[in-house]
Amino acid sequence: MATEELDVPASPDAQEGRITPARAIKDEQGAASSFGRALTFVEERLAAGLRWIMFLSLLGLSLTMVAQVVMRYLLEWPFLGIEEMAPLLALWCYFGGMVYSTRHRTHIEGGILTLITSNPRIIGVARALGTAIALVVLCVFFYYAYAIVQFNFDIGRKSAYLRWPRYLWDLSFLVGMAGMALYLLIQLWFELRHVKLVWGGR
Q1: Which of 52, 53, 58, 50 is nearest to 22 (CA)?
Q2: How far is CA 122 from CA 119, 131, 194, 196, in A?
Q3: 131-145: per-residue pLDDT in tens?
Q4: For residue range 8-42, what is the model confidence (pLDDT) as tens digits?
Q5: What pTM was computed for the model?
Q6: What does each C-alpha distance from 148 to 91, 141, 174 come to in angstroms?
Q7: Residue 61 pLDDT more than 80?
């Protein structure tokens, strides 16, 4: 059949020419360098940790909501501490998901540039520049997030009902932003290598 003879890309990343951190690191595993093997090993452990964080926090959030309904409407004994636990679990789930989506590059992107030009040099430079700008902006956000965490830690701020340290909530966005910055840095590294390649470098 004619469709069987077509060279269909294996994934949208291959079709659109985008570099995905997870795929680039996996491809680097085949390299003979010890750096490639070490990077792959560390990244796989990090990805496994992210999956566990998202799974446990989402499971805990679901069970917390069920417990709240049972205690409030069946036992008529509402526990206000659940109102503090829910945002805690949700934050860890959200920011873990943000890191994981950055790893797979599944966040929303415009992709308008590919409609204007098909020049791989221009597209490669534009994507590397966009990643660099995103990384810089994320570092600025991380700085202010760290300032908030440090402030709450210094004053010993605690939650109203459970009396848990406030940094348990705050650490979620610090860890999330640090993980996103790591994957954006990896993405930028591979994009710069790609730009060098398409511009005739070695």
Answers
A1: 50
A2: 6, 14, 12, 12
A3: 999 999 999 999 999
A4: 333 334 345 677 777 777 766 655 567 667 777 88
A5: 0.78
A6: 16, 11, 10
A7: yes
Three-state secondary structure along the chain?
CCHHHCCCCCCHHHHHCCCCHHHHHHHHCCCCCHHHHHHHHHHHHHHHHHHHHHHHHHHHHHHHHHHHHHHHHHCCCCCCCHHHHHHHHHHHHHHHHHHHHHHHCCCCCCCCHHHHCCCHHHHHHHHHHHHHHHHHHHHHHHHHHHHHHHHHHHCCCECCCCCCECHHHHHHHHHHHHHHHHHHHHHHHHHHHHHHHHCCCC
Structure tokens at 196: 């060098």
Q: And the tokens for 40?
A: 């792959």
Distance between CA atoms of residues 152 and 42, nearest Å: 31
Please check whether residue 154 is in contact with residue 94, taking contact to mean a CB–CB distance below 8 angstroms: no
